[in-house]
Amino acid sequence: MPSKPKLGQNFLRDQRAIERIVTAVGDCAARTVIEIGPGRGAITGPLAARAGRVVAVELDTELAGRLREELPSERVTVVNQDVLDFDFTAASAEARERLLVVGNLPYLITSPILLKLAANQASLDRAVLMVQREVADRVTARPGSRDYGLLSVTVQLHGPVEALFTLAPGAFSPPPDVHSTVFRWRFAPRFAELNVQPTEFIRFLRQAFAQKRKTLANNLRAVKFPAESVAGALAVAGVEPMARAESLSIEALASIWRDLRTKEATPLGGVAPLHSLSEH
After folding, report:
1. Last residue of a domain, one of 133, 168, 189
2. Domain limits at 140?
3. What's the CA gap between 81 and 78, in Å, rounded?
4. In the predicted structure, residue 89 carries a pLDDT above the cut 50
5. Number of domains in the chain
6. Which of the listed residues 189, 207, 224 is the one where a domain comes to its end?
7. What is the DSSP string of 102-151?
8. pLDDT category, 267, cuts 50, 70, 90?
């Protein structure tokens, strides 16, 4: 079957990689696993052999129909739906537990899917996800590195991430033009630990990372934070006046936000919802 470029489909065919992905999920014998974009079912079958139940969310109607025909209905439920519309909260309530997630994410909508998962973190336990290597590099990046930015902070705010392994294009059919990396994400939000309000802090992060070439202070002043409040918050956090957001840890960014909030140094403008957040 040819790929569907509009869906960004590249089907995994490397059997060793499939085994490593399923193993990375961990013990799932009595668990419900949501698989994002099962495609031809290369991961779904081995996953169903180990999991209590697999819910395979597939947008392509033809592929969804084929999966229903080929996989045991008592172990696998195929949902023909866009994962961005999938109700993780309802699925978690039905399972009476936090969900496990597995997915070979379509390249074209990787960031929206990651943000969808972040927004549903209360319903999720952990995820093993395959993405374009460059995206995985950003997701797992540390402060001060070339790849560290808004996506890094947003994902890591919702729990620790670790890169597991990288696959060359030949592991897929048809081969993509890029390498792919599998990473594991454990959902353990840090908002309470950092003493930050989720919506407000994420809006602040959007402002802090707005322009990579600008210093953090300039980015914040551009959205009408008072200059003296910004300077004071940076000093309290022990951050150099000319520092860029890309050099700062989540802890330092949270400290700056808390100090600005204490001073009621609120910028003009509305609150950006989590689902609108993306990085290019």
Report:
1. 189
2. 5-189
3. 9
4. yes
5. 2
6. 189
7. EEE--GGGHHHHHHHHHHTGGGEEEEEEEEEHHHHHHHTPPTTSTT-SHH
8. low
